[in-house]
Specification:
Helix content: 25-40%
CATH superfamily: Glycoside hydrolase/deacetylase
CATH topology: TIM Barrel
CATH architecture: Alpha-Beta Barrel
Mean pLDDT: 92
Structural class: alpha/beta
Shape: globular
Number of domains: 1
Order of helices and strands: HEEEHEEHEHEHEHEEHH
Length: 267
């Protein structure tokens, strides 16, 4: 259920540019998963239906630089890590004629996630055949490094290897150029950005919030995270404001600023 204020905000969304959404795991059923970075399949489908009903167009990460494809109400749906449970999300996207981009950790393709994060167990990763299926119907499969390590902590040699080897592995599997990348944990600095460019990538995602190209750099694209606890209304507000902070206080600040602007002609 979406309240009238949120519905109005959502209808007026995207005036500042495209939005990139970040997902991770998509679990069967309904309800709110325990892991904050997972969403239920039912919630995911409701979010897709909301986008479709309100005229939003999905594009891939590699299409973000094409002004002809970035019409008003354009969203890039991205998935980090490459979890096997994303296959149902893939089917839901195909059923609605939507596209998305997957950022895959290449060392674990066809196996299980080898990196360790607090509060989450190892999960199965998509295999080569499935990744080829994705691109064959118009999805994008791209790199999330070989091992999901925090890039600023790596040496120059390690950094170059993580970027170039993961790119080559995916290109060998897919038979096409891999243009896009996502920084594990969103962790990056100027050295990492330069290494991404040197490795031959053209587009890269961070976890910094905002309109996708607010920073003006295709190698530091901004994204909005979709969390387990997001209601359909909070999901809509995230698209309207291009931020993860869409609670009551954020709405109050927004309308207070609008009121001051109308009253005094400035923020």
């Amino acid at each position: 259920m979406i309240d009238p204020i949120t519905r109005k905000l959502f209808q007026d969304a995207s005036r500042h540019g495209s939005v990139v959404l970040m997902y991770h795991s998509v679990l069967p059923g309904a309800g709110s998963p325990d892991w904050p970075w997972a969403v239920s399949y039912e919630a995911f489908c409701q979010q897709l239906d909301l986008l479709a009903k309100n005229g939003w167009k999905t594009i891939r990460m590699q299409d973000l630089a094409d002004p002809e494809k970035c019409a008003p109400k354009t969203v890039v749906i991205t998935f980090d890590d490459g979890y096997e449970d994303n296959y149902k999300a893939f089917e839901a996207l195909v059923a609605r004629d939507m596209t998305a981009s997957w950022f895959v950790v290449t060392n674990d393709i066809g196996g299980s996630s080898s990196w360790v994060d607090p509060g989450v167990n190892s999960q199965k990763i998509l295999n080569q055949e499935t990744l080829r299926e994705f691109v064959n119907v118009g999805m994008e499969v791209a790199s999330h490094t070989c091992s999901h390590r925090r890039m600023p902590q790596l040496s120059d040699v390690e950094l170059a290897n993580e970027l170039s080897k993961s790119k080559q592995v995916l290109e060998d599997i897919l038979g096409q150029e891999v243009k896009s990348f996502a920084y594990p944990y969103g962790a990056h600095d100027d050295r990492c950005v330069q290494a991404v460019l040197d490795a031959g990538y053209k587009y890269a995602c961070t976890t910094r919030t905002g309109w996708a190209l607010a920073g003006g750099d295709m190698l530091t694209v901004r994204r909005i995270t979709v969390f387990a606890g997001d209601s359909l209304a909070s999901f809509a507000r995230k698209l309207a404001f291009a931020t993860n902070d869409v609670g009551f206080l954020a709405l109050t600040r927004y309308y207070s600023a609008r009121f001051r602007q109308r009253l005094f002609g400035r923020d």
